[in-house]
Amino acid sequence: MNTALTQPGAPMKVRGIQKRFGAFTALDNVSLDVAAGELVCLLGPSGCGKTTLLRCIAGLERQDSGELYLGDRDVSLLPPQARDYGILFQSYALFPNLTVEANIGYGLTGSGRDEVRQRVGQMLELVGLVGSEKKYPGQLSGGQQQRVALARALAPAPSLLLLDEPMSALDARVREHLCTELRQLQRCLGITTLMVTHNQDEAMLMADRIAVMNNGKVEQYATPQEIYDRPATPFVAEFVGQGNWLPFSRNSASHAQVGGMNMRLADDAGMAKSGRLFCRPEAISVNPPVHEENLFPAKVREITFLGNRCRMSFELEQLPGHPLLAELAPEAMPRLGAQHIWVALPPRSLQVFA
Amino acid sequence: MFKPLALVAAVLTAFSVNAFAAKTELTVYTALEAEQLKTYKKAFEQANPDVEIKWVRDSTGIITAKLLAEKDRPQADAVWGLAASSLAILDQQGMLDNYAPKDLDKIGKNYRDAANPPAWVGMDVWAATICFNTVEAEKQGLTKPVSWQDLTKPEYKGKIVMPNPASSGTGFLDVSAWLQTFGDKQGWQYMDDLHQNIGQYVHSGSKPCKLAASGEFPIGISFEYPAVQLKRQGAPLDIILPKEGLGWDIEATAVIKGTAHKDAAQKLADFSASPAAMELYKDNFAVLAQPGIAKPQTELPADYEQRLIKNDFAWASKNRDSILTEWRKRYDGKSEKVAGQ
Amino acid sequence: MTLPRQVSRAETGDRVFVVGGKLLWLLLLGIAVLMPLLAIFWRGFSSEAGQGGGLVAARELVTSANFHWLLGNSLKVSLSVAAIVVPLAYLFAYALQRTLIPGKAIWRGMSLLPLMAPSMLPGIALVYLFGNQGMLRGLLSENIYGFWGIVLGEVIYTFPHALMILLSALSLADARLFDAASSMGASPARAFRSITWPATRQAVFAAFCLVFTLTITDFGVPVVVGGDYQVLALEAYKAVVGQQQFGRGALIGMVLLLPALFSFGVDAWLRRRHGDSMSGRAQVFQPVPSALRDACYLTIVLLICAVLLLVFGMAVYSSLVKFWPYNLSLSLNHYQFEDTAGGGWLAYRNSLTLALCTALIGSVLIFTGAYLMEKTKGQKGLNLALRMLSFVPMAVPGLVLGLGYVFFFNLNGNPLHVFYGTMTLLVVCTIAHYLTTAQMTATTALRQLDAEFEAAALSLKAPLYRHYLKVTVPICLPALLDIVRYLFVSAMTTVSAAIFLYSPDTILAAVAVLNMDDAGNVGGAAAMSTLILFTSAGVSLLLAWASRGALRRSQAWRQTAPGQ
């Protein structure tokens, strides 16, 4: 790919950003480092502060305190025009009265006419829309509009790309395809990218690292794998993927009392004296070989067929009234009608939260 | 805080006011009929090419009120064609610059301010007239009134229009004449009776005659100028000069004290009193301030001038305020026939 | 890393555009709205001799029998007019929005006629129709002068104002609600009671208040057909213009401000309490065919249009008649304005100047001001102040605003006094008078734009003013043209504020109408009114045509534009 397409991405640093709207704290002392060329997702439920953080970085909101660095520049107090980033909005915000060409060339002031035309052509080639120069945004499909908006954001060769829920206006079919495409493009260009989303699948698919946010705070900032396997807080555990919660009290360093059961814990499971144990549904096995640890009798409540896998709702006999979920390959499912089964909760899959 | 504003204002005014005109622009207040203004202005500007008249025209009462309100900061340079009774009030307020026009000796002594030099100099005389629509009279079976007293007859109920004396000079000279000829008590009694027959009080002195001419109200208390004009245009009007005598007033000219264009204003006063101007007035009025120029108007009787009452201007202008207050109290906005609705 | 030079230049440019623009707006609103209003109160309560103001005079005024009579008359007239106009306008609006009668565009156009002429025109036409020499005099037992004359004239004058509010209220209907109602077996009457009425009753109240306020502050109709039946607005006019009693005028002005303020307050309160009941996903309502219903509504619409046509046709006809009622041959004599009182062709030319300046300057100022208030984030306090100030004119009748201008700009020692009597001041006053409605049109159009347009432009380092000119203005062109039309027609027909502010050089056509009627030259007044009517209607048609042309040219991108 042509190296002149963008400047090398710059690292970005967020330091102790604080933002209030009246009595509501939107951002509570948020800090975040994004390495050059990295794609970071801000993931969280609506109202968690992820969009506010993006807007602060873009200079569209002014933080109450804290600093922002882009490369080695302190951009905390600069107006948006002076920050050097491109942004792709949820609505794309394409100017409907301007052609595709004019939209992409909108940010290319100060360059000559030929230069602009050349750059626009380059960008159209990059997003695969050569030939649409004279069309208006209204004449394009949603996916094409997104690409035009992306081309417009990238045209001035910014050192940071901001994506605000870029996929939410698209239907599910094209979404995954575009996610992959966008990810490839970003890798290719090596542009530092920050993306806001509430969709964990998108985040998992695209991000180098994910910052899970809740109530104006970053709950966990790690790779997708880490976020899924070792959630740092109950919120992250609950928000990302599905999970089972079991109330416990500590018997010893290595064992926990759950209802009438004594469960063994892994060495690094956590220190809390009592609280809840967390376990992913796919970690649970049904009717395993007898030597498995943490093997307990259970009763099947319901089985749902999901195509490539099955979901089973069950109750541990020694913890009645507390439905749990397990996800299994269809062939591992208990035979129909078998109400009583054995389930294993491997120690490595149990995580302790206070 | 006003300094920068003043600067902006000054810059902007340069655009809104034509400051580069070489001619002297003379602001002249007048209560003359609008039709007359063009001829008078043209004649004056021909005689004085360096002066341009800017008219401010309204009814006598309104022009008087405006002049009084602007007493501390006069906007007018001169007055050409305002009731002498009004000018007398301005004179009492010290607002007029006494000046003797070139042809003052030719002006009849009754038609100028007694002081020397005079505060105001007359142009012509206008007097009360009843305009009577003959077509409507026949249709509605009305007899032709011959006196002021006739107008209080019940057959005219709702058929008469007269000008409001507060705004109209004609209205005021009617009221002032009735009070002078009938006496104070009978005068007001007469107006009480007349009030029962009034269809409407209107703003200007010529409107009653116009309403009579169009038959909207068959009888209009007005003055002779619109009556003569409308009759010439073919309106079915009888011009009635009531036998008790006609209230009248002098249209006069004066220079406003403190004007920035004193020269031009005095030129105007000179012109207004000149024989050339009298030639213009004569087309519109039967009695002029310079004797011997007027020609009898065919629509008016030959003895027209003798029918004017003996008018005490000093009394009229001294009592103008109290008369108007009393009039307003009695007739303005308390009409019984509408209060019932 | 060094910043490209253009960025810092764009930044400075934007600051000048945004902050400078807002400060300029604040200054203008302060001078054009706030100070004149304060001047009214100052004049009303200062007891300068001969001015009829001050607390003592206020008490005297309020307790005088004359004042009670005037107030009673004003209230009676205004309530009657509102009670007649609102139901009629509701039926008319319902016919246009909720039935399938033919020729809707024609009826709609006809119903707007009264907006195109000064309020004196219906009065003049009524004189020719029902005056003592009126064409249809025989239909009435008494002549038209007085209570019924004023009421009829005001009904015609205020009809389109009420109609516009009700039309927009009735245009919003969620078809799903009606489907639900009919699936539950509700009769049309029940559906009206439970769906249409609750959704529109607030607009009915707003229309009632507007008609009431317009009527109580109008003196154009009373001055022509009021006869001796006098009202407060006329008294304020007479006090200031006729007697130069500014204090008395100010006191009555304050009284006239009360109903407007009251209805404005109640309306705002209702709005806040009810909020917006229409969801974004509402389905457009399509009336079902019903011959009987359509026949009934068509009859009503035809009757109302016939009355309007009769009145306006009569005004035009009377302006052409040589000497009413004795010589009915037609001529253009009444159009020879130079020989009559009132200002003649100068007045007409001045009105054209005023209307053009008001429309062009006003629309640019108002639209840009609305843009800055809607689309820029900073200067929160400034935005709030601007928003509040720009809502004030809606609650201030033109008569009161005009009085305020007299008091403020004619003040001794006010350097702005140089504008007194100039066209500049007339333009400023007219823009201020019609500011709120124009700004609401602009705001509505701007709110339909994608909220991120400005953020996108800023991220692309484009200066905001360039974005405003290249993107915002072209998209909002239809709304902008609508504002131009509204301001032009309003300036052409207004008399309420201008009557206090003109000088012989700047006399206006609508003022000339009033003066000619005052002098008894009713034919001339009719002629000038007709001229205003045709000018306003002509310009409106021209702008509608231009707007349609602009829309057609931009069809390529307008049809499926995203985010709209």
Could you describe the 3D structure shown?
The complex is a heterotrimer of chains A (354), B (341) and C (564). Chain A is of the alpha+beta class. Chain A folds into 2 domains: 163 residues, P-loop containing nucleotide triphosphate hydrolases (Rossmann fold, 3-Layer(aba) Sandwich); 112 residues, RNA polymerase II/Efflux pump adaptor protein, barrel-sandwich hybrid domain (OB fold (Dihydrolipoamide Acetyltransferase, E2P), Beta Barrel), CATH 2.40.50. Chain A has 8 helices and 20 strands. In chain A, α3 packs across α4. With 341 residues, chain B is α/β, with parallel strands linked by helices. Chain B folds into 2 domains: 155 residues, D-Maltodextrin-Binding Protein, domain 2 (3-Layer(aba) Sandwich), CATH 3.40.190.10; 155 residues, 3-Layer(aba) Sandwich (D-Maltodextrin-Binding Protein, domain 2). In chain B, strands 1, 2, 3, 4, 5, 6, 7, 8, 9, 10 and 11 form an 11-stranded mixed β-sheet that branches. In chain B, β1, α2 and β2 form a beta-alpha-beta unit. In chain B, α4 packs across α12 and α6 crosses α7. Chain B is globular, with a radius of gyration of 21 Å. In chain C, β1 and β2 form a beta hairpin. The longest helix of chain C has 41 residues. Chain C has a two-stranded antiparallel ribbon with strand order 1-2. Chain B: One of its GO terms (cellular component) is outer membrane-bounded periplasmic space. Chain B: Pfam families: SBP_bac_6. Chain B: One of its GO terms (molecular function) is metal ion binding. Chain B: Keywords: Iron, Metal-binding, Signal. Chain B: InterPro entries: ABC_2-AEP-bd (IPR017663), Ferric-bd (IPR026045).
Keywords:
heterotrimer; A: 354 residues; alpha+beta; Rossmann fold; OB fold (Dihydrolipoamide Acetyltransferase, E2P); 6-stranded mixed beta sheet; 5-stranded antiparallel beta sheet; 22% helix; C: 564 residues; mainly alpha; MetI-like fold; 2 domains; 23 helices; globular; disordered N terminus; MetI-like_sf (chain C); transmembrane (chain C); transport (chain C); transmembrane helix (chain C); Iron(III) transport system permease protein (chain C)
